[in-house]
Amino acid sequence: MIIDDIQRAFAASGLITRGAFHATTADDVPEGGRTVVMIGNAGPDMWRAFAKTERSSANPLDSWTREVLDPIAVGFGATALYPFNGPPYHPFQRWAMRADDVTPSPIGPLIHPMFGLWHAYRGALVFDAELDIQTPSRTPSPCASCTDKRCLNTCPVGAFSEHGYDVPTCRTHIAAPDGQDCLEGGCLARRACPIGQDYIYEPAQAAFHMMHFLDPK
Question: Are residues 122 and 159 in the same domain?
């Protein structure tokens, strides 16, 4: 199956295939695209590959992602698309829910039954052909049976609630001395989720993402 070949092509980068779907007009896939294969990461494997590379651009992870995906896309006769290309931006969250066994969590990011909140979608390969793909499994969201909802009760400044995510309050806290734990180790609310604890990002990886959240380029 071509999906297995794609996975092998990404092995050295720590990136993995994150499901696929056959596109319809409702999916907002560029004209001619019939199969979308999601590419992303789970846990620290991608970070370990990326950390070995030179970082010279303002958005080094985005640049590295292009350097990895673009030639693989060409090799498979696909078009590479990215969540950071825009505006307008491609609906990666919606595509992810079509391709993968993920659902929205109470704090926003999509939650996976194995990876928890410790995963991401870095790109997509779009094929003009209708490839042979597996239908993603659909398991109940782990959030539905979670009674503690620690993700909503752990943030020291209450940035997360059932009403949404208070981004300015979060950023102000992370930039202050009291926010060093979040800045250096990653979001406390995210870390409080019991799902996917084996895939928690390494401290350097979490700090990298938090620094870019504070100072987006």
Answer: no
- Per-residue pLDDT tens over the stretch 132-167: 999 989 999 999 999 999 999 999 999 998 788 999
Same domain, 123 and 154: no
Question: Does 138 reside within a domain?
Answer: no
Shared domain for 123 and 159, answered yes or no, is: no
What pLDDT sits at residue 161? 85
Q: What is the DSSP letter of 194?
A: -
Structural domains counted in the chain: 2
Residue count of the chain:
217
The secondary element (H helix, E strand) that includes residue 45 is: helix 45-50
* pLDDT attached to residue 216: 72
SS3 content of the chain, % helix, strand, coil (to 5): 40, 15, 45
